TrEMBL record:
Cofactor: record remark: Binds 2 manganese ions per subunit.
UniProt binding sites for Mn(2+) 2: 198, 289
Protein name: 3'-phosphate/5'-hydroxy nucleic acid ligase
InterPro entries for the chain: RtcB, RtcB-like, RtcB-like_sf
GO molecular function: DNA ligase activity; GTP binding; manganese ion binding; RNA ligase (GTP) activity
GO terms (BP aspect): DNA repair; RNA processing; RNA repair
Region annotated Disordered, chain positions: 113-142
Active site per database record: 345 (gmp-histidine intermediate)
Length: 416
């Protein structure tokens, strides 16, 4: 086990302790209460790890790592199953980019559906494909997944759980979504051009997550199990519900990874049409930050839930984004076992979306995103850089978890 210098605060609880990498970073009381609630559960193994971007979430905090023996909490994994990041370094340099980047931004927006219309639950939604193009249908019906394809594997799941058939699936493959999802063109410390994007499993992942959260709640009611928060309802390992959830969540994580790959290929095509001598370097990263996986920690095979956290094993590359106007980082993991080989998934929200809308104006947002070709309207005030924690403080708090490989600053940002 690695002997890392202690850089965390250990918080005693009535259950397992909390180890928090939050030096110099504010943590809201509601988030600490959620961490304590999780730590009180009898099946949580060793301790709960809180990353420096930790903040309130549904049931469990975003920015936490939860190791479980014999159970999984579906709400801790969340409804954006497999949400994560992908980044690719290109052969372009800043000198190749035009002074006005709005044309590049428009090209990306035209190539990839983003945002949503209304509830986003029908084929007229602007954030979905009306008629999925060939590259999307190929990824859906031809790309191998276990013993079949994404399409055939989902059919197996929905045959047993017909309510999941109502969710958007192929029409959301290769689409961005809304909220904090984004596509960015960035420059690194050597002026190399990168493409970085953030998205997950879209409508089908949301339906799978919501469906199994409700299943877990019904199981708690069935067995008269009282919890400090109803959203901490769990599925015991070995139960039919647990096995079905593991099958469905693994599929959603694969869908999310494929979603990012399809979008990245489409952005690369846009760049290839706008720039001569365009190429892609070998450095590419595709990592989840909302997911569950079985790993060995402290001598036990445990179910590790990373809710807003990235795996950071020894030498593993990851991505920690800032905000629409702040730096992002390509990092290499140090394999710190105290954090279950994890690091933060971003800067983390400093306030709720409603609070950001109340506190900031469009002029504030325009100033904060100066020099970035992006939306500068009231519809993205909740995503303005001031709504997030200071990424520099977040990175300093986890210096024993990761080392910085590249520092990126966006010049184009596409949001739904």
């Amino acid at each position: 086990m690695n002997d890392h210098m202690k850089n965390y605060t250990e918080i005693p609880t009535d259950g397992v302790p909390i180890r928090a990498w939050t030096h110099g970073v504010p943590v809201e009381e509601a988030a600490e209460l959620q961490l304590r609630n999780v730590a009180s559960l009898p099946f949580v193994h060793s301790h709960v790890a809180a990353m420096p971007d930790v903040h309130w979430g549904k049931g469990a905090t975003v920015g936490s790592v939860i190791p479980c023996l014999g159970a999984i909490i579906p709400a801790a994994v969340g409804v954006d199953i497999g949400c994560g990041m992908m980044a690719v370094r290109t052969t372009l340099k800043s000198r190749h980019l035009p002074d006005n980047l709005e044309g590049l931004r428009a090209g990306i927006e035209q190539a990839i559906p983003h945002g949503r219309t209304g509830r986003g639950d029908n084929r007229n939604d602007r954030g979905a494909w009306g008629n999925p193009p060939d590259d999307v249908t190929s990824a859906w019906g031809d790309k191998p997944y276990r013993d079949g394809t994404l399409r055939s594997a989902l059919e197996t799941i929905t045959d047993k759980h017909p309510k999941l058939k109502k969710a958007n699936s192929v029409v959301h493959l290769g689409t961005l979504g809304a909220g904090n999802h984004f596509i960015e063109v960035c420059l690194d410390e050597s002026d190399a051009v990168w493409v970085m994007l953030h998205s997950g499993s879209r409508g089908i992942g949301n339906r799978i997550g919501s469906y199994f959260i409700e299943m877990a709640k019904k199981e708690m009611a069935r067995w008269f199990i009282n919890l400090p928060d109803a959203d901490l309802a769990y599925l015991p390992e070995g139960s039919e519900g647990f096995n079905d959830y593991i099958q469905a969540v693994a599929w959603a994580q694969a869908f999310a990874q494929t979603n990012r790959e399809v979008m990245m290929h489409r952005v690369m095509t846009v760049l290839a049409t706008q720039f001569t001598d365009f190429g892609v370097s070998e450095l590419a990263i595709n990592c989840h930050h909302n997911y569950v996986a079985q790993e060995k920690h402290y001598g036990k095979q445990v179910w590790i839930t990373r809710k807003g956290a990235v795996r950071a094993g020894v030498g593993e590359l990851g991505i920690i984004p800032g905000s629409m106007g702040a730096r992002s980082y390509i990092v290499r993991g140090k394999g710190n076992w105290q954090s279950f080989c994890s690091c933060s998934h971003g800067a983390g929200r400093a306030m709720s979306r409603n609070e950001a809308k109340r506190r900031f104006t469009v002029d504030d947002h325009v100033h904060a995103t100066e020099g970035v070709a992006c939306r500068k309207d009231a519809g993205v005030i909740d995503e303005t850089p001031m709504a997030y924690k200071d990424i520099d403080a977040v990175m300093a708090a986890q210096s024993d978890l990761v080392e910085i490989v590249h520092t990126l600053k966006q010049v184009v940002c596409v949001k739904g």
